[in-house]
Amino acid sequence: MSHSQRLAELGLTLPTPTKPAFSYLPVVVHGDAAYVSGQLPWVDGEIKTIGSLGAAVSLEQGKESARICALQALACLQQALGSIDRISRIIKLTGFVQSTPDFHQQPSVIDAASQLMVEIFGEDGRHARSAVGVAALPRNVPVELEMVVGIRDP
Fold it and tell me: What is the mean pLDDT of each run of 10 residues along the chain (154 residues)?
């Protein structure tokens, strides 16, 4: 089963990729890898959740934000590659979690995105990962996610 078929089987659709507000590319393809810029939890042109984990944002809201960011990243990849079926492997996922100093569940938040990659890509969705707590993120979002993926020729 292709990755796009698996996505549909899971009942998921990729959103329209959000256009960069600043001077960068959403995806850079270099050789057999694609590098996805940091993605925010945009839903229908608006940020889904704002605030910090450990304060105004719950663990569940943080996990939902991580999944939304992951779908945004895949949408950017689809736009850049023509299809997510060109993805051969998820190599690295880096998640940034805006959180209070006493919040220590950043890995649990980002694991929602990691689990989604495995649901869609199977064993090829398993990846190296970092989950980093930060004091602030753009637009006051709770999660930002970037990825590196291996790609194959069309």
Answer: 96 95 96 98 96 98 98 98 98 98 98 98 98 98 98 92
Indicate which CATH number applies to the domain containing 61.
3.30.1330.40
Asked if residue 38 belongs to a domain, the reply is yes
Write the Ramachandran bin of 54: left for phi over 0, alpha for psi from -120 to 50, otherwise beta: left
Is residue 105 a part of any domain in this protein?
Answer: yes
Q: Counting Cβ atoms within 10 Å, is residue 62 exposed (0-12), middle (13-18) or buried (19+)?
A: buried
Q: Which pTM was predicted?
A: 0.97
Domain count, the chain: 1
The domain of 70 spans 3-10+26-151
